[in-house]
Write a structure and sequence with these properties.
This protein is an alpha/beta fold. It has one domain: Aldolase class I (TIM Barrel), CATH 3.20.20.70. It contains 12 helices and 16 strands. The protein has helices spanning 36-44, 74-89, 148-164, 179-184, 199-202, 204-217, 240-253, 281-288, 300-308, 319-323, 327-333, 359-367; strands at residues 7-9, 12-14, 18-20, 50-52, 56-57, 69-70, 94-99, 117-118, 127-130, 133-136, 141-142, 169-174, 222-226, 258-262, 291-295, 314-317. It has an 8-stranded parallel beta barrel, surrounded by 5 helices. Strands 1-2 form a two-stranded antiparallel ribbon. Helix 7 (240-253) runs parallel beside helix 8 (281-288). It is globular.
């Protein structure tokens, strides 16, 4: 089975090609520190080849729902140290995903009433669950050119915190409409300075962040996630092949560990190419030249087929990993899957988080 074959990614020899996709589970404490429950959750899933953590904010100006993760304070890093140690004790490999929400920060929770920041003063469409109920995304404050270096420094500081926490590597979140994605896309980036306009300028922030994080971890412990077809909050680009092709080639030159692409495999799924737009995966794979992780509605069969055809090297799963902490073993034995409880995906306690039974537990219960 292709998914169960080992693979070398960066400096790691992974035991299989199954990736735990980063997911916003929001079980951290009031200070955004992961408690023991979070350690248990990740350790349960250490049999996958690579764990990518939930997105962790790099800045006090990157503010989301209660329980969401961050790694810009020492206490937060210390909490993630426990997570990394628990995963390593089970033989797993874990990368910290880091991000900045930019214009998608919750305006009702911004420190001292500050405005969210973004490349341009264009608000995201839709609402966020604020302190007193749903609230519209605020019009963001455009970052001044000389402020951008401070954002890069926040990502580097977060990487240093993750390194001190014992994480194996970093995934830079350049997807899903967050700050880096906002700079990449010409629908949200209307700047006229060195960070706007031409493709190379719009990619500059991401590449400066990559270079800063590589200084901390080394290129073979850094990955980047992109979502060329994300349209959930009004973000868009007039030529995704051009901007993401440029990004893939530039990342390939830096010889980072992997490129993580969200691109759904079937029309009609979230983040599938819109009508008239060809899939980007083949071109990005050629331009990047390194290991490609794909994510977007894959089944066991379609994932194996994609790897066998040379379309990808690894496949990331979300709901299947949530509901099946022993997913590689279930794939190996063609065993039935637990059904995910979607009502518990984004907040709550142990239910729907650490209480999904393993296959061995189900078989034991059946014999009892």
């Amino acid at each position: 089975m292709e998914l169960l074959r080992p693979v070398r990614v960066g400096c790691f020899d992974l035991k299989n090609r199954i990736v735990m996709a980063p997911m916003a589970r929001a079980r951290n404490d009031a200070e955004r520190v992961p408690p023991p429950l979070v350690r248990e959750y990740y350790a349960q899933r250490a049999s996958v080849g690579l764990i990518v953590t939930e997105a962790t904010s790099v800045s006090p100006l990157s503010v989301s729902r209660p329980g969401a993760a961050a790694i810009f304070r020492d206490a937060q890093a210390e909490g993630w140290r426990g997570v990394a140690a628990a995963v390593h004790a089970k033989g797993g490999v874990i990368f910290q995903q880091i991000y900045h929400l930019g214009r998608k920060s919750d305006p009702s929770r911004m420190p001292e009433g500050a405005a969210p920041v973004a490349p341009s003063a264009i608000a995201a469409t839709g609402q966020v669950n604020g302190l007193n109920g749903p609230v519209a995304f605020a019009e963001p404050r455009p970052l001044a050119t000389d402020e951008v270096a401070g954002v890069v420094a926040e990502f580097k500081r977060a990487a240093l915190n993750a390194q001190r926490a014992g994480q194996d590597g970093i995934e830079i979140h350049g997807a899903n409409g967050y700050l880096i994605n906002q700079f990449l896309c010409d629908g949200t980036n209307r700047r006229s300075d060195r960070y706007g306009g031409a493709v190379a300028n719009r990619a500059r922030l991401l590449l400066e962040i990559v270079d800063a994080v590589v200084e901390v971890f080394g290129a073979d412990r850094v990955g980047v996630r992109v979502s060329p077809h994300f349209r959930g909050d009004g973000i868009a680009d007039s030529d995704p092949h051009a901007i993401f092709g440029h990004v893939a080639a530039a990342l390939g030159e830096r010889r980072i560990a992997y490129l993580h692409l969200i691109e759904a495999t079937r029309p009609g799924l979230a983040q599938s190419p819109p009508p008239g737009v060809a899939p980007l995966a083949p071109g990005l794979r050629r331009a990047f030249g390194g290991k490609l992780i794909v994510n977007g509605g894959y089944s066991l069969e379609s994932a194996n087929a994609a790897i066998a055809a040379g379309e990808a090297d690894l496949v990331a799963f979300a709901a299947l990993v949530i509901a099946n902490p022993d997913l590689p073993e279930r794939f190996r034995r063609a065993a039935p899957m637990n059904e995910p409880d979607r009502t518990t995906f984004y907040d709550g306690g142990p239910k729907g988080y650490v209480d999904y039974p393993t296959l061995a537990e189900r078989l034991t219960d059946a014999r009892a």
